[in-house]
Design brief:
Number of strands: 9
Distance between the termini: 33 Å
Radius of gyration: 28 Å
Structural class: mainly alpha
Strand order of the largest sheet: 3-2-1-9-8-7-6-5-4
Helix content: 55-70%
Largest sheet: 9 strands, parallel
Oligomer: single chain
Number of helices: 34
Length: 860
């Protein structure tokens, strides 16, 4: 095992590390203002930062001494001009590093090894498990849901350049690399206007067209060709989901017309993909009995795309019937020539239909509650005393709805739009098929009533109970909500009307579990353990009720929001947790980092497919936790929860985060259409603050508190209780526990406490900084003791080196950002607020954010 790891590490050094140094020298010729000095100055500044922090200097001291020692700049405008050029330069260094990693992906990653479909094939043959595989694949699938969370900093133009740059690097075409680097120099990275939800949708549709269309098609084609007897024609193994344009939770810019517009864009994008594939087929399939069929199909696709009035003159079954006839003709009359090309397209049409990705609708439960109270006031569809009824009375009234409500009776735009959205789903299903939009997700679900409220609204919106082709998905997020989830679902399963609805939906219930708000609410250990326990409980009671439960995991990019080594988490789920489907959100930078190229997307798709299948078929050890192991994890979670709460409830906790991080500037970064808070209140409140800016702010501060705080204290407490041997045994035998701590290490290696060490003596924030620093040191000590490694992530040397190189690229940026935040605080204390200088430093803070987030890839 040691040799392959060392080989991969050497390849990484050669293909990424060395090449980065070589191509980085090309930046000296990039078309930036006075760039010839910028490259030299930035290299000096990086060394100066490292030396300064080693001497416990503050960012202000480091910047001051740098300007004095290495430049003649004494005017503040000259100094800030250089800092902006540093940011511009570093942004493009990050792009170069991204492109180099993408280009080296196939060489560094063992795409045929552990977790691949090729390994699955070998395991099935050796274990003679063909029948077991066929049974598993009857209803197993992986659904990746692309979300609109605002952490994708690269504009579409830059994503395209990264793609082209990677190809040039693969081919060692230095001339092209040079040109693309020059193109980067003239391409804006900063979005001057906040993107609309439609803009976000179009950005992610780029990934659907250019990455997932090929990667998902390849993955399914491989399974079909190597396991023809096992792959069920009726089950689609991979599904794509989509939130931009459908997720309106706290986003006032998403409305029914936007939802329709996005659904139409998805339909147009997949038809365009089919059209291009058919044109390619025509070049090969020039045979009698085939050519005319293809020409007719090509014309129908063309008409559907470009001729008004023919938008609905096409359906998935029609395309498939044509392709199946063509396949049969080739096999029977033309020796099966090029039949694999036709089968590949058939797989894609089966996967993506006319919807490409299923558009989910999401709204907060409080919106539904208020809307129903208004409807009771203005119409006879609900009892006039609806508002004063207990939950049971409200549920009875909602289930008795027999007439729709006209949205014109409603005054508030939000209420009108919520009702109009329900009608919009019907329109989308007519054009894109049922899978185009058939899930309604309820944020902050706390009761059975929250679910029945949506059921009632669907009836009020014009749906009939017998033809209700929508799955209602409760989302449990906070620790208390996760603990109550079992009782909520038990109440629903015992409700006869809702059970009839589930029966019509194939006796399947999807439940979404949110990592992000769980971590914000209860800390890293308690959030992860609460979700695990909730899954166990929900699986048990669903099985008892005869319901197939499917878990939809709301995961962010970093470990603090449920990310990290995701496939290992799914491989670690015990048999007492349902795993018929793997469903998870893919957010922000994780889209471009894990699924940015066809190779990386296919690799990560295969890892997820393999995790779900091997977990059931080939577990080398029983991954289900024993009672004693569960008790140990509960003790850890309780200790971590207590430690995290002491920090969270410190009276200066939120003030500290707002004072020391760029939290308040997230909304100004123009990286997403959603506000950074759900509530417009002036006072910053942890409950209203979205998880993305919360976790992202800690990341920019280089104190990844949500992903490690409380872990060290918990491990120390159990050691004191004499349970260290149990912990070691758990670490060695539980993939769940090991993955939990591996991801914690990943977050910690991206932390850098010296950046903010100057706060240790701050009269207000010093105690909090010291609490965080002490917990960081304690957690590091115990993680290394458990893993036996000498450094964090020492057992994953390639990933460790990648992160270390990225963190070094952005060290100047985090230093500049902290310096700018300090200058803003100084200027805010002046009566004239710095005569406009404050705005300059605020721009500097925001600009630094781009490079820091992009370099971290899964850091927000």
């Amino acid at each position: 095992m040691e040799a392959p790891v060392n080989n991969a590490l050497q390849l990484f050094r050669n293909l990424v590390g060395t090449k980065f140094q070589l191509y980085n020298s090309l930046f000296t010729s990039l078309p930036f203002h006075r760039v010839e000095k910028t490259g030299i100055f930035l290299s000096l500044f990086l060394l100066h930062c490292e030396e300064g922090f080693a001497r416990k200097h503050s960012p202000e001291e480091i910047l001051s001494s740098f300007f004095e020692q290495y430049t003649t700049y004494r005017d503040e405008q000259q100094q800030t001009d250089l800092l902006f050029r540093f940011v511009q330069y570093a942004e493009r260094q990050v792009v170069l590093f991204d492109a180099l990693e993408d280009a080296a992906f196939r060489d560094i990653r063992d795409t045929q090894g552990a977790g691949s479909l090729r390994q699955l094939q070998s395991q099935v043959m050796q274990g003679q498990a063909e029948e077991a595989l066929a049974k598993k694949l009857e209803d197993f699938s992986v659904r990746l849901v692309l979300t609109a969370h605002p952490t994708q900093f690269y504009p579409g133009e830059v994503l395209g350049i990264i793609n082209d740059l990677s190809n040039a690097l693969i081919n060692d075409n230095t001339a092209q690399v040079n040109m693309y680097l020059q193109q980067l120099g003239k391409t804006p990275f900063f979005k001057k206007e906040k993107p609309t939800p439609y803009d976000e949708a179009i950005s992610l549709i780029w990934f659907l067209e250019n990455v997932f269309y090929q990667a998902a098609g390849r993955t399914v084609s491989y399974l079909k060709s190597h396991f023809p007897q096992a792959v069920s024609e009726s089950n689609q193994l991979i599904r794509m989901g989509f939130w931009p344009g459908g997720d309106r939770d706290g986003n006032p810019f998403v409305n029914a017309p936007i939802t329709l517009q996005v659904a139409d864009a998805l339909r147009g994008a997949i038809i365009k993909c089919y059209y291009l594939d058919v044109r390619k087929l025509k070049r090969r399939l020039t045979f009698k009995g085939v050519e005319n069929e293809l020409t007719t199909l090509e014309q129908k696709l063309y008409s559907n795309l470009f001729i008004p009035g023919q938008r609905t003159d096409l359906c998935q079954s029609e395309i498939l019937d044509t392709l199946l006839r063509i396949r049969d003709t080739i096999v029977q009359q033309h020796n099966g020539l090029f039949v694999h090309l036709v089968e590949t397209l058939i797989s894609r049409v089966e996967l993506f239909g006319l919807f490409f990705a299923s558009l989910d609708i999401r709204q907060d439960s409080s919106v539904h509650s208020k809307l129903l109270e208004v409807i009771a006031e203005v119409s006879d569809a609900l009892p006039k005393n609806y508002t004063s009824l207990p939950d049971a009375g409200k549920i009875k009234a909602l289930l008795a709805v027999t007439q729709p409500v006209n949205s014109s009776l409603l005054k508030e735009d939000l209420h009108k739009d919520t009702l109009e959205t329900i009608k919009t789903v019907q329109t989308i299903q007519q054009a894109n098929g049922e899978e185009g939009c058939n899930r309604y997700i309820i944020s902050h679900s706390t009761s059975a009533l929250n679910v029945i409220e949506v059921y009632g609204l669907l009836l009020l919106g014009g749906w009939k109970k017998e033809h209700l082709t929508i799955d209602i998905v409760p989302l449990f997020e906070t620790i208390d909500d996760l603990r109550a989830a079992g009782n909520v679902m038990r109440s629903l399963y015992e409700n006869e009307a809702y059970r009839q609805h589930l029966h019509r939906r194939g006796n399947k219930q999807t439940i979404m579990l949110g990592f992000s708000d769980g971590t914000k609410d209860g800390g890293y250990l308690m959030a992860n353990w609460s979700i695990y326990k909730a899954k166990e409980e929900l699986t048990k009671l669903s099985r008892e009720a005869g319901i197939d439960v499917v878990f939809f995991d709301g995961r962010g990019g970093p470990p603090g929001r449920g990310g990290g080594k995701t496939h290992q988490f799914y491989a670690s789920m015990g048999r007492n947790i349902a795993n018929k489907e793997i469903q998870l959100t893919i957010q922000g930078q994780t889209v471009s980092s894990n699924f940015g190229t066809v190779d990386s997307a296919q690799f990560n798709l295969e890892q997820l497919v393999h995790a779900g299948i091997s977990n059931e078929l080939f577990s080398s050890r029983e991954v289900t936790l024993s009672d004693s192991e569960a008790d140990l994890l509960q003790s850890l979670a309780d200790a971590g929860y207590q430690s995290f709460n002491q920090l969270k409830h410190h009276p200066s906790f939120m003030d500290y985060l707002e004072h020391t991080s760029p939290l308040r500037y997230y909304a100004e970064a123009n990286i997403g259409s959603r506000p950074s808070k759900r509530n417009a209140a002036a006072r910053l409140n942890l409950n209203d603050l979205r998880a993305v800016p919360y976790v992202g702010a800690w990341s920019q501060l280089k104190q990844n508190v949500p992903a490690f705080y409380g872990v060290g204290t918990a491990l120390q407490q159990l050691e004191k209780e004499g349970r260290w041997t149990e912990l070691e045994r758990l670490y060695q035998h539980s993939l769940f526990f090991k993955t939990l701590l591996d991801n914690c290490e990943m977050a910690m290696i991206k932390s850098y406490m010296p950046l903010t060490a100057h706060l240790a003596n701050h009269p207000v924030y010093g105690p909090i900084w010291q609490m965080i620093c002490d917990e960081f040191d304690l957690t590091k000590k115990y993680l290394l003791k458990l893993s036996g490694a000498s450094t964090l992530m020492g057992n994953s040397p390639v990933e460790q080196l990648s992160i270390q190189m990225r963190e070094r690229i952005v060290l100047p940026l985090v230093t500049i950002q902290q310096y700018a935040l300090g200058r803003i605080r100084e200027l805010e204390q002046q009566e004239d607020k710095g005569n406009g200088h404050k705005e300059v430093f605020e721009r500097l803070v925001v600009r630094c954010s781009f490079g820091i987030i992009n370099a971290g890839r899964n850091s927000a």
